[in-house]
């Protein structure tokens, strides 16, 4: 089970995410990110593979969401679905490999709801509560 919900935040957008695994937590974060930036999720015509590494799970989550932002706002490619994702740790390093489906965008066929300037570390901590992983993510808009 994974889910996200919007939370109150003064000037930015916040989401609370939960998942049965770290992978499900990242998928919930992706869904919250998508509901923040898109009116309608994009058609999934192409696939991209993302491979990232970071010094902590929190840093990996921020890097992952910022990479989605980079693809959207710089490369004009809109991620619409995660087809598979794996997260692992070796020592202090954390690794992500994901296949993302999406499409190229242009101003004529794609309207965005909100522009996220950056994903922040403000209050970000991935916790395991019982059988669920939880976190809060703040998007700087």
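^ Assign residues to that structure.
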């Amino acid at each position: 089970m994974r889910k996200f919900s919007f939370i109150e935040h003064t000037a930015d957008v916040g989401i609370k995410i939960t998942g049965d695994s770290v992978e499900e937590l990242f998928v919930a974060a992706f869904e919250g990110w998508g509901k923040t930036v898109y009116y309608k999720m994009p058609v999934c015509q192409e696939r991209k593979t993302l491979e990232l590494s970071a010094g902590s799970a929190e840093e990996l989550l921020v890097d992952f969401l910022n990479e989605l932002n980079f693809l959207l706002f710089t490369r004009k490619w809109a991620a619409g679905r995660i087809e598979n994702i794996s997260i692992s740790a070796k020592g202090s390093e954390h690794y992500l490999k994901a296949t993302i489906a999406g499409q190229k965008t242009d101003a004529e066929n794609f309207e965005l709801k909100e522009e996220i300037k950056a994903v922040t570390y403000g209050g970000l901590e991935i916790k395991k509560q019982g059988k669920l992983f939880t976190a809060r993510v703040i998007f700087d808009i």
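The domain at 2-140 is CATH 3.55.10.10 (Archease, Possible Chaperone; Chain: A; domain 1).
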